[in-house]
Design a protein that fits this description.
Layout (H helix, E strand, L loop, with lengths): L2 E4 L2 E4 L3 H10 L6 E4 L16 E2 L10 H20 L3 E2 L3 E5 L2 H16 L6 E4 H7 L7 E5 L3 E3 L1 H14 L3 E3 L4 E7 L2 E6 L4 E5 L2 E3 L5 H8 L7 E14 L4 E3 L10 E4 L4 E5 L3 E3 L11 H9 L10 E10 L11 E4 L8 E5 L5 H15 L2
Parallel strand pairs: 1-13, 2-3, 2-14, 3-10, 6-16, 14-22
Antiparallel strand pairs: 4-9, 5-9, 6-8, 7-8, 11-12, 12-13, 15-18, 15-19, 15-20, 17-18, 21-22
Bound molecules: flavin-adenine dinucleotide.
The site of flavin-adenine dinucleotide (FAD) has 42 residues, from helix 1, strand 20 and helix 8.
Length: about 375
């Protein structure tokens, strides 16, 4: 016989965003369930990124990305300090190489100020190289609130907090259909003879969020997959701060990626693909070599492929970039069905602020 289980809230997806939302909702509801199709948390976007705590300098003023990133930056340092999660508030330099770049750096500084990012400074080459010896640039923007974090440690902490507050996390539980009856969502899980019922469902399924939304009957979203490869190198160890080029049309450009053990990689580039897959080859070696050499000396034969991630974008290659979509679908006839669509960067930085935002959307 099919077993029926009732919860106050079901969150679909145990990535960093789903876990942060569930942890926040455990403060308001007694009975919170997280479902993930994989055997552990963070097996997709949340373990294939740069691990950077962004400051919020890039995003359009008043957008969700700007507001949630700036708030999330503060909250993430706070949770890391309180729970002994490894992090480093190393700051970052965004480099420019000529007068046209200088104008762009000035614009970025103005945008940062509008978004409320504190203490951003425009530096000369001499000032920048005092912070990071060996850097190549004409000018640079110094962004002190940027850092790096052990995102696995953060997910571990969030999962533990959920369980401590009597929430439940079920792995190996792939949602494959969602019915609605009297504003109650009835969720079926692959290969399990159970029906999970809840008046609140949060779709935090990352690369699959459009499929989950379609299951309930909301077909207006489409996720575009934008891959980003990383290359490792042994040339550098313990760089003082992150180094970024000026942002590109898609993505922030190939930047340094600092690990907490001091090792240094580079990435990610950005290219759209048609399907989800984490295979990687060295066909982008030349473009990595020339991009990195603009801001740091590197030899081509010291660059080797590392890993790749996929951005879940809500817009395609030739479309205008979009803000995060975080929506209570009450207007589509699905009250308290919360869709999160296009949670690309700065989703890691914003996760705790997203949790609070979702709590505020519930009616
Ligand atoms: C290359 C790259 C670099 C990035 N760098 C940064 C950075 O430096 N700083 C930053 O702030 N952000 C960064 N980001 C963004 C950040 O990593 C993401 O915004 C964040 O990890 C998204 O988390 P998520 O929980 O939404 O998605 P995910 O971690 O993908 O979680 C979604 C979960 O849903 C589950 N799921 C899917 N379908 C189902 C189903 N049918 N049933 C049950 N479970 C299901 C999946 O198994 C998965 O665990 C980067 C992203 C990429 C790709």
């Amino acid at each position: 016989m099919t077993e029926s289980l009732e919860f106050d809230v079901v969150v679909i997806g145990a990535g960093i965003v789903g876990l942060a939302i569930a942890n926040e909702l455990c403060e308001k509801f007694n009975n919170v369930l997280v479902l993930d199709k994989e055997s552990d948390f963070g097996q997709h976007v949340s373990s294939r990124h740069s691990g950077v705590i962004h400051s919020g300098i890039y995003y359009k003023p008043n957008s969700l990305k700007a507001k949630l990133c700036v708030k999330g930056n503060e909250l993430i340092y706070e949770i890391a300090k309180k729970n002994d999660i490894d992090y480093l508030n190393c700051g970052k330099l965004v480099v420019g190489h000529n007068e046209a770049d200088l104008q762009k750096l000035n614009n970025l500084r103005d945008n940062a100020a509008e978004n409320g990012v504190q203490n951003v400074e425009l530096l000369s080459y001499k000032e920048a190289s005092k912070i990071q010896p060996g850097i190549k640039c004409q000018n640079a923007l110094w962004v002190p609130s940027t850092g790096i974090i052990d995102s696995h440690g953060l997910m571990n902490c969030l999962e533990k907090q959920i369980i401590k507050k009597a929430g439940i996390v079920y792995y190996n539980s792939e949602v494959f259909s969602i019915d609605v009856f009297d504003n109650i969502y009835i969720i079926s899980v692959k290969n399990q003879d159970i029906k999970i019922k809840s008046p609140v469902v949060v779709n935090s399924a990352g690369l699959w969020c459009d499929n989950i939304s379609t299951m309930v009957g909301i077909k207006k979203y489409k996720i575009h997959y934008c891959k980003g490869d990383y290359y490792q190198s042994n040339t550098y160890k313990n760089l003082k701060c992150l180094i970024y080029p000026l942002p590109e049309k898609i993505g922030l450009g190939i930047h340094t990626v600092l690990q907490l053990d001091g090792s240094v990689s580079f990435g990610p580039n950005a290219y759209y693909v048609n399907k989800i897959g984490y295979e990687i080859d060295n066909s982008n070696l030349d473009s990595f070599y020339s991009s990195i050499n603009k801001y740091l000396d590197i030899e081509k034969d010291d660059l080797y492929v590392d890993y790749t991630g996929i951005r879940p974008k809500s817009y395609g290659f030739n479309e205008e970039s979009n803000d995060f979509i975080i929506k209570n679908e009450v207007d589509s006839g699905f009250p308290n069905f919360i869709n999160l669509v296009g949670i690309e960067s700065p989703g890691l930085t914003s996760c705790l602020a997203i949790g609070k935002y979702v709590k505020g959307l519930l009616i």
